[in-house]
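Dear support,

We are seeing what looks like truncated structure output for some complexes. This example has two components. We would appreciate it if you could run it in full and send us the complete token output so we can diff it against ours.
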Amino acid sequence: MTQLINKQFRLAARPIGRPKKTDWEYREDAVPNLQDGELLVQAKFISLDPAMRGWMNDARSYIAPVEIGAVMRAGAVGKVIASRHTKFSEGMYVVGSLGVQSHAVSDGAGLMAVDPKLAPLSLYLGALGMPGMTAYFGLLDVGQPKEGETVVVSGAAGAVGSVVGQIARIKGCKVVGIAGGPEKCNMLTETLRFDAAIDYKSDDLRKSLKAACPNGIDVYFDNVGGDILDTVLTRINRSARIPICGAISQYNNTTPIKGPSNYLSLLINRARMEGFIVFDYAGRYKTAMQEIAGWIASGELTVKEHIVSGIETFPETLLMLFDGGNTGKLMIQVD
Amino acid sequence: MTQLINKQFRLAARPIGRPKKTDWEYREDAVPNLQDGELLVQAKFISLDPAMRGWMNDARSYIAPVEIGAVMRAGAVGKVIASRHTKFSEGMYVVGSLGVQSHAVSDGAGLMAVDPKLAPLSLYLGALGMPGMTAYFGLLDVGQPKEGETVVVSGAAGAVGSVVGQIARIKGCKVVGIAGGPEKCNMLTETLRFDAAIDYKSDDLRKSLKAACPNGIDVYFDNVGGDILDTVLTRINRSARIPICGAISQYNNTTPIKGPSNYLSLLINRARMEGFIVFDYAGRYKTAMQEIAGWIASGELTVKEHIVSGIETFPETLLMLFDGGNTGKLMIQVD
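Here is the complete output from our reference environment:
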């Protein structure tokens, strides 16, 4: 066996605002020999997620920041190509937090075996992975949509938003997606069968929301924060629920985050805004995965993926998330 | 019977920012003769509440704005001095939305008979009235404090806050009040038996919260909004609940309301911020009143009142709410 090389991106500096190329260190290191209890995974797909921006900051959060000099944290799916681990054997496929690298040595903690015959590998980073779980539990547990209610989702063409809207449709809700640009909006109504889509880049959001949601908004699944959250707050119904999934419009701010000026709409409308972290639902992932897989199989849920080739593209590819460059789940195909 | 004169304040203009004297019209009108189904109430105490500022704005809310030219809306308690109503007879005492006036003609809608032998009349505007109900349902239903948890309340020396903190203490919580000035803070810890009080005017709020809440904050009952809400958000625990009762720091703004920049703390901490309106709990007022009356009788709950004499003082007395001038329930004694 020739010496394997691990292509990897390490965090070189904490970004101020938008992550720059110099915030990363690209390295090619020899893959070390395995110790007892370790396995080696060759990554096939690496997941790029908005949450990664938060992990780069040195701030108290739901998870420790990535240390300077460490391989950047990322979800990935790959093949076990060597193993001295009792649970994972060579030839198996696994998904987990394997980092932005082509070859990951792991002690197996947090890894889950997946079956590439049941679903394409990339799905385990998308609709059957963290974004799918985030959509499922954030919408159903936190948002608690009821049949006939109006659900609005921002970042609607993204990995999470595209699944949120479709689950809401499956549950009998009226679904309105907010996304940037006519192509994404067409995709939402044509391919994903949302009831309406609003292009926040060109439409008057307030007027469009009024037109698309004549009965008001019962659930707003927020991926973006900022002005969109503030505008939606003016249109919510009594007892509305606002799951806070993220605030991608604010992640690269160099000034303080824009808080929602219209938050007193929560008071008037007896509404609530509630944060959640998908990891809390780990005990129920299996059930959610089965249900989502069933919807995919029946054609009720359409998966959108945006796959970029080559781990070397990581610094630029990551920025697509903040520039609205991707439609559906963004990931890097390794090799 | 000599002709009775009704002293009254009518809304003359919608205030911009802080209500000015010229936003009011003071009038003395003859009390009209009663029609069938009407009663005449001589007000004893008129309630002054932060919510009144919102009612003066021409904005969509949970209740219609007060019309220009109409008697200002206010809760009041008084004596029935004439009646052609089947349910309310002369000599009874009633509480309800009777307005800022000495003599109110009413059709009985929304009026409740009260017994001045069971409790001093003024209590029906405070701990046994809307502020008490707001504290009770906002804390217990929305905040859901559990024994041993830490509850923080702002506007803690006010009509609502002073009751919130005491109910939290009765329920076995650690209670920290935020108020303005050393006198109010002393009152909170000495008279109302809060565990700690923070003077937001002179203390470093962030440091004081850290010191007073070593185990973090589980429930934050917010009466004030603004910078205090933002600072508290940095100290909340996982699954914290934030009942939004009001935002008195923002009510006289002439610029947009300051939204909470730190609202993403809700996400990290899987916490929620939830608005409520006391009127929704009307069906349970009786139970709450009985429980609060019991706590007052047993000495577990101490009532603080701030009574100003003379309806003529209304425009200036109202401003005490925004200037932190009152300790406990602010009201005007008529006569």
